[in-house]
Amino acid sequence: MVTVWFIRHGESESNAGLPTSDPFAIKLTDRGDQQAKQIALSFTQQPSLIVTSPYLRTKQTAQLTIERFSSTPQAEWFVQEFTYLSLDRRQPTTNLERRSKVAAYWQQCDPFYVDGDGAESFANLIDRIRYLRQQIEQLDEEFVAVFSHGLFMRAVLWSWLTNSVEISSESMRRFRDFADSFKLPNGAILKLQLYNSDIWFSPIITSHLFEQYA
Known about the structure:
Blueprint lengths: L1 E7 L21 H12 L7 E4 L3 H13 L5 E3 L22 H10 L13 H16 L5 E6 L1 H13 L6 H11 L9 E7 L2 E4 L13
Parallel strand pairs: 1-4, 2-3, 2-4
Antiparallel strand pairs: 1-5, 5-6
Helix pairs in contact: 1-2, 4-5
């Protein structure tokens, strides 16, 4: 049996409402650093592999866990956030300032649309999800900690629960509705267990965080 913990990174500058531009370089806030400590303390056994995305905020979140389990191998997988807005036109902006562009993207609902440099399409996201599922199904390690991102983790959960890797406008709409239907706080953990063809997901876990979420 393989156990995978998907862990959302701690609060980032963008999550806190600060202006950001390059998604690769967004840092944690002081609150995010505290959440990273709480995550590291939540492990009751040593993971056999620690995975981060290419984005800095997952690496910062994972650092204390890596230090606690210094003998555990590390890897970087393509579990970065679904970044669908272009970077080539982006000056530092807040989430609030990007809201109209976000709404326009999802209103268009074209799964093959690429907004520009640094952006990916919904089809690209689904390709990454397919690849991740193959990676997990082929794991030799028994317990893997994957430090990832909110929208990407929702896509993983949606794909497995619905058994869908379809690329269409309708599936894109269904995913958006699913992603908007529940909270996934910074520092939250989603546990997956895979045994042969059977899969189990935990509820969204926040009990390790000092701040409790309803």
